[in-house]
Design a protein that fits this description.
This protein is an alpha/beta fold. Helix content is 52%, strand content 12%. The protein binds nicotinamide-adenine-dinucleotide. Pfam families: 3HCDH (PF00725), 3HCDH_N (PF02737).
């Protein structure tokens, strides 16, 4: 077995920490996971072993020069933060989504990491300036936001704070490419990064259409999964409009007036109140379709299908990541 490509530290050994550990080990790195909860830490390796074994059985391991057993061998756990970060070129922070906690964890990393080490935070919602401002090594800290489940979905949003070094961003981006992820680099921080700004725009419109009785909850999911979704899975909204006319300029010549006219009728965002009538309509529809006790089984099915799609795309020479 070849020498490890380097050492990666993972802070927080929950759902996302485990997936990052699997991704970095598949890329040939040595991975050390740290968690302040000893029970969580003890459970992490058996959970990873089970995931590797299921993926292996279904022939769904990520492409790697290493076997599943070799990848597992590259992952270890420690209850010492110093031992975790010592010798790391990169650290992925994966503690729960609390601003106070992220700030405290970054501060504790600040005093133990080497000056060249880069720390990427998995945060889904916090701009990096909100939790790195008090760190001496804040120029080495960035957001590296994965999409759940990262083992099957390759997007990573890399988001700098105003003080993040350009070379720290570049190191994070190139590391993500090295492990087979699809990083996108934002030029500056913004609430929601890119993905959630788009996702929330969609959710707002979905809410209004159901709330106003324009369409049923069942049909709104059909609009996405049988209409927009499959095209976007292959080529995104921009290549889609490029193909929907004779190039993007022709598309805009033909449709930009209608796009503006429709867009001007869109309703402003409202609080999607969980106690509202619309929320009850959505809950009863979805519970009828997928009872709460079947969510685990449905998630496993979704993950398997995502892996199949990822496999089909990467095997296609015409697919552009
Ligand atoms: N779950 C998702 O769908 C998803 C997707 C993308 C990003 N994220 C982000 O990833 C991060 C982790 O989410 P998760 O779902 O893995 O959470 P999780 O609750 O499954 O795991 C968090 C782990 O961090 C540990 N922890 C808590 N405080 C700690 C500390 N001070 N030091 C070290 N470890 C500590 C906990 O013991 C736990 O094992 C969050 O910021 C979340 O927003 C989650």
């Amino acid at each position: 077995m070849a020498e490890p490509a380097g050492k990666i530290g993972i802070i927080g050994s929950g759902l996302i920490g485990q997936q990052w550990a699997m991704l970095f080990s598949s890329g040939g790195f040595e991975v050390v996971m740290y968690d302040k909860d000893k029970n969580a830490l003890a459970a992490a390796l058996p959970k990873i072993e089970k995931q590797f074994s299921d993926l292996s059985k279904n022939n769904r391991l990520r492409p790697s020069p290493l076997t599943a057993a070799q990848q597992l061998q590259r992952i270890s756990v420690t209850d010492s933060l110093d031992a975790c970060v010592s010798g790391c070129t990169y650290i992925q922070e994966c503690v729960p989504e609390s601003l106070e906690l992220k700030e405290a964890v970054m501060k504790s990393l600040d005093s133990v990491i080497s000056p060249s080490c880069v720390v990427g935070s998995s945060t889904s919602t916090f701009k990096p300036s909100l939790f790195t401002s008090k760190c001496d090594k804040r120029a080495r800290m960035v957001v590296a936001h994965p999409v759940n489940p990262p083992y099957y979905l390759r997007l990573v949003e890399v988001v700098p704070a105003p003080w993040t070094d350009a070379d720290a961003v570049d190191l994070c981006v190139s590391l993500m490419r090295q492990i087979g992820q699809a990083p996108v680099k934002m030029s500056r921080e913004v609430d929601g990064f890119s993905l959630n700004r788009i996702q929330y725009a969609i959710l707002n419109e979905v809410w209004h259409q159901v709330d106003q009785g324009l369409i049923s909850p069942a049909d709104i999911d059909v609009v996405m999964k049988e209409g927009l979704g499959p095209r976007y899975a292959l080529m995104g909204p921009l290549e889609t409009i490029h193909l929907n006319a004779h190039g993007v300029r022709d598309y805009l010549q033909k449709y930009s007036k209608s796009i503006l006219a429709v867009s001007q009728t869109l309703d402003a965002p409202v609080l999607m109140d969980p106690e509202s009538k619309t929320a009850s309509v959505l809950q009863s529809h979805l519970e009828k379709e997928i009872p709460l006790e079947a969510l685990g089984e449905r998630t496993a099915w979704r993950n398997l299908k995502l892996a199949e799609m990822a496999g089909a795309k990467s095997a296609d020479p015409l697919y552009k990541a």
